[in-house]
């Protein structure tokens, strides 16, 4: 049986509710993945309160705040792109997705400058300057790099999802009556946003 | 024209003949297939390949221990072998064993569905399984030597050792991801793909156990993912996380590790309990006793099983209160397990029992699982735990549950369902003999470990005091008997599946949906879904008949 014959004989099962349910389950696993890191953070913060306090003052709250605003706004544009798609306004929806991706780049550029400033100051895993610091600060910066790094990886994955969505809109696979993939990508994006909302106070605001 | 053995005329080619893609035959028509049945078979063969390797490692470990001092391998190789034996058996055999093979194959059929809800994701899970397996193989073959940390990767040793810990960590991470995706697929399938008449309490108990398992897979596996990733990051980049030299806390690692790895033992055992619940009613010709209790006890095990992890760490340093709480919950988790055992036994009571091979394996399961479960309670008692921690008593305990339980559950499932999957029957007589040899060998292998562990033989030790030698010799001889039995069993199954006599639609007289469709099943399982009127184990016709004849 050729693939086209097969597709005709066995039409693909469509269940948008099921697809969203699968996505939510996946988001649970992501939350628990970061949950493990939050546990590590909580334990070490409890063990080294003073040193976490000192280390946190090295971070630039302005950059963190800018990134928070960028991600929150991008979550809004992602949600709006779904509504635009539902209403059949494909061009507007695509525009909103591009704006979302734009905000993601603002976030990553900010992150790049933030990290490179840290590295220039000699604060990176295994560096002499960092190892000279007390244990609590080593743990703080270890967690800082791992948690924000893993989060940035998720930002990149989210952007890749949106690029796929744009391609599928172009191919006509996503349209005003079939947009569950766009919804799922936006759900993923909200998760990325949500995790940042926890990371921001944990690293930048609690002194 | 219709053969007498075939109640229904065979009109459609089976899934073994119809491809789901443009390749009609050959390897590509399999490894690119999204059909849940073909994926199940692919899991079966890849899993058996890994199982063979791990059994061989186990054989070498036992052979080394037949006499004190060096026998055939040096200490470093010994450490690497038990590490690989653990990693392969756990991540590549027992965890995917039932859900990925028989769950994939029969879950959609049992709920009256054409396939799982995300067939392509299902295929992707298999690819991740294979890639994870390749990383495990790479960790063996790459220069530097395979990991020697034990399958638990305890820090700080796993950060310091120069062996290939990283490929092994990546393997476990990818396999975890594969397991998550399978679980996610099953939960959504059970919620969304059930036939409209298939209400929750008409689902076969195997489906219930897969459902409970899938939730653990989804909710617990990410923790091990991030924990192993952290160890990897710490190894490669020198980030301070668990290494005490950088202020980290190795006990925290142990907590995070067991938060997954204890629930994981329920990922391993629950589907086997589901298989047992399937097989007992069929071979006793009795409706299952306490259907809802068995179904909910699976969920109860999944729930309580997530709250007992620290009983692996009683000697690692914990507050007395924490020890007491974890010991108590450990005792609580035995209640739902015991509920299952009592319900199985009550199902058999006054049944017309047929001692076919699947049922024999189930009998071994019940006995061995009960021994394993009971010794688990002994280990869960705080005072006794101090005495038995890290002895071969622990090794015997978890092998009784994991191998004597789940392993035998997998063998039972093979003897029960392979004829359905391939449409051919194996030799029943040989299978019965193989069962006898496997059971004897198995118990000869692990029973001495209880005794010498109680007497003080530490686990994972390369050398031992001469007073333990009789037990080690008995155990090693047991391993030979076991392997002979396994070879007979698998050869018999292999020959049966290739050349055995063609079997009918329902060789065992099962009442669940998979026995009401063509053998082997057609591509999308059902021409039309049969009537789903009663529960899955309706043997009332046999039961009433018996009463009238009295």
What does this structure look like?
- The complex is a heterodimer of chains A (207) and B (550).
- Chain A is mainly α.
- Chain A has one domain (18-205): Four Helix Bundle (Hemerythrin (Met), subunit A), CATH 1.20.120.
- Chain A has helices at 3-9, 16-47, 49-56, 61-86, 90-120, 128-132, 135-170, 180-205.
- Chain A starts with a helix and ends with a helix.
- The model of chain A has no long low-confidence stretch (mean pLDDT 92).
- Chain B has helices spanning 28-31, 36-64, 75-110, 119-141, 157-160, 165-192, 205-237, 250-284, 291-305, 320-348, 357-380, 382-388, 392-422, 428-455, 469-499, 540-549.
- The longest helix of chain B is centred in the N-terminal third of the chain and has 36 residues, at 75-110.
- Chain B is globular.
- Chain A binds chain B through residues 1-3, 6, 10, 13, 15, 17-18, 21-22, 25-26, 28-30, 32-37, 39-40, 43-44, 47-48, 125-126, 131, 134-136, 138-139, 142-143, 145-146, and chain B through 18-22, 24, 114-115, 117-118, 121, 180, 184-185, 187-188, 191-193, 218-223, 225-227, 230, 233, 237-241, 246-249, 252, 256, 259, 523-524.
Structure in a nutshell:
Chain A has 207 residues and is mainly α. Chain A contains eight helices and no strands. In chain A, helix 7 packs antiparallel against helix 8.
In the CATH scheme, what's the topology name of chain B?
Cytochrome C Oxidase, Chain A
| Helical content of chain B (DSSP H or I, runs of 4+) | 55-70%
The fraction of residues in strands of chain A falls at: under 5%
Which superfamily, in CATH terms, is the homologous superfamily of chain B?
Answer: Cytochrome c oxidase-like, subunit I domain
As a whole number of angstroms, the C-alpha radius of gyration of chain A is 21 Å
Uncertain segments of chain A are: none
Indicate how many domains the architecture of chain B comprises.
1
User: How do the SSEs of chain B run, as a string of H and E?
Assistant: HHHHHHHHHHHHHHHH
End-to-end separation of chain B: 40 Å
User: In this structure, how is the largest beta sheet of chain A organized?
Assistant: none
Global Rg of chain B: 23 Å
Chain-averaged pLDDT of chain B: 92
CATH secondary-structure class of chain A? Mainly Alpha
Largest sheet of chain B: none
The name of the CATH topology of chain A is Four Helix Bundle (Hemerythrin (Met), subunit A)
CATH class of chain B: Mainly Alpha
Give the number of DSSP strands of chain B: 0
CATH superfamily of chain A: Cytochrome c oxidase, subunit III, four-helix bundle
């Amino acid at each position: 049986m050729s693939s086209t014959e097969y597709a005709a004989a066995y039409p693909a099962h469509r269940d948008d509710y099921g697809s969203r349910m699968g996505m939510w389950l996946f988001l649970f696993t992501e939350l628990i993945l970061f949950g493990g890191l939050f546990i590590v953070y909580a334990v070490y913060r409890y063990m080294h309160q003073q040193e976490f306090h000192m280390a946190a003052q090295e971070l630039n709250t302005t950059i963190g705040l800018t990134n928070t605003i960028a991600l929150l706004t991008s979550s809004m544009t992602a949600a709006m792109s779904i509504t635009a798609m539902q209403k059949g306004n494909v061009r507007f929806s695509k525009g909103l997705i591009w704006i979302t991706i734009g905000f993601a780049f603002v976030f990553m550029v900010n992150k790049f400058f933030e990290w490179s400033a840290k590295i220039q100051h000699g604060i990176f895993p295994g560096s002499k300057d960092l190892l000279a610091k007390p244990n609590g600060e080593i743990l703080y910066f270890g967690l800082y790099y791992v948690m924000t790094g893993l989060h940035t990886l998720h930002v990149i994955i989210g952007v890749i999802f949106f690029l796929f969505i744009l391609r599928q809109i172009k191919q006509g696979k996503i349209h005003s009556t079939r947009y569950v993939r766009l919804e799922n990508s936006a759900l993923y994006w909200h998760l990325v946003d949500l995790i940042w909302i926890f990371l921001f106070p944990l690293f930048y605001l609690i002194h | 024209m219709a053969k007498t053995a075939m109640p229904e005329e065979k009109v459609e080619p089976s899934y073994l003949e119809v491809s789901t893609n443009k390749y009609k035959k050959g390897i590509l028509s399999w490894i690119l297939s999204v059909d849940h049945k073909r994926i199940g078979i692919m899991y079966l063969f890849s899993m058996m390949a890994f199982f063979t390797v791990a059994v061989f490692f186990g054989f070498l470990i036992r052979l080394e221990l037949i006499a004190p001092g060096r026998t055939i391998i040096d200490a470093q190789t010994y450490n690497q072998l038990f590490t690989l034996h653990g990693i392969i058996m756990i991540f590549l055999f027992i965890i995917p064993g039932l859900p990925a093979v028989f769950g994939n194959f029969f879950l959609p059929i049992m709920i009256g569905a054409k396939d799982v809800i995300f067939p392509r994701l299902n295929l992707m899970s298999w690819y991740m399984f294979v890639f994870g397996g390749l990383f495990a193989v790479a960790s063996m073959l790459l220069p530097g030597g395979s990991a020697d940390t034990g399958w638990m990767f305890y820090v700080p040793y796993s950060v310091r050792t120069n062996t290939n810990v990283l490929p092994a960590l990546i393997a476990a991470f990818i396999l975890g991801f594969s397991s998550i995706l399978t679980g996610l697929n099953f939960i959504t399938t059970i919620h969304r793909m059930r036939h409209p008449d298939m209400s929750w309490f008409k689902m076969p108990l195997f489906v219930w156990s897969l459902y409970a398992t899938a939730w653990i897979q989804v909710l617990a596996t990410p923790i091990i993912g991030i924990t192993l990733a952290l160890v990897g990051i710490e190894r490669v980049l020198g980030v301070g996380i668990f290494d005490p030299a950088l202020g980290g806390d190795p006990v925290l690692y142990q907590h995070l590790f067991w938060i997954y790895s204890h629930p994981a033992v329920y990922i391993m055992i629950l589907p086997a309990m589901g298989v047992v619940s399937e097989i007992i009613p069929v071979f006793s010709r009795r409706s299952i006793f306490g259907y809802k209790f068995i179904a909910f006890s699976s969920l109860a095990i999944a729930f309580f099983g997530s709250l007992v992890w620290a009983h692996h760490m009683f000697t690692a340093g914990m507050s007395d209160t924490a020890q007491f709480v974890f010991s108590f919950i450990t005792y609580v988790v035995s209640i739902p397990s015991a509920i299952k055992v009592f319900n199985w036994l009550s199902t058999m009571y006054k049944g017309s029992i047929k001692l076919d091979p699947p049922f024999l394996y189930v009998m071994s399961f019940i006995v061995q699982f009960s021994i394993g479960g009971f010794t688990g309670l002994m280990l869960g008692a705080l005072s006794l735990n101090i005495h038995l921690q890290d002895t071969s008593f622990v090794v015997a305990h978890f092998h009784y549950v994991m191998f004597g339980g789940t392993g035998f559950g997998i063998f039972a499932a093979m003897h029960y369902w392979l004829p359905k999957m391939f449409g051919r029957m194996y030799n029943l007589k040989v299978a019965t003999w193989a069962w006898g040899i496997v059971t004897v060998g198995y118990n000869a292998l692990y029973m001495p470990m209880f005794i010498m562990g109680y007497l003080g033989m530490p686990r994972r030790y390369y050398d031992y005091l001469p007073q333990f030698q009789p037990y080690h010799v008995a155990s090693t001889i047991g391993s030979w008997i076991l392997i002979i039995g396994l070879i007979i069993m698998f050869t018999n199954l292999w020959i049966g599946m290739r050349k055995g006599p063609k079997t009918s639609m329902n060789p065992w007289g099962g009442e669940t949906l998979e026995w009401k469709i063509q053998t082997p099943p057609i591509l999308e399982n059902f021409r039309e879904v049969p009537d789903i009127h009663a529960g899955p184990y309706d043997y009332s016709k046999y039961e009433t008949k018996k009463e009238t004849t009295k």
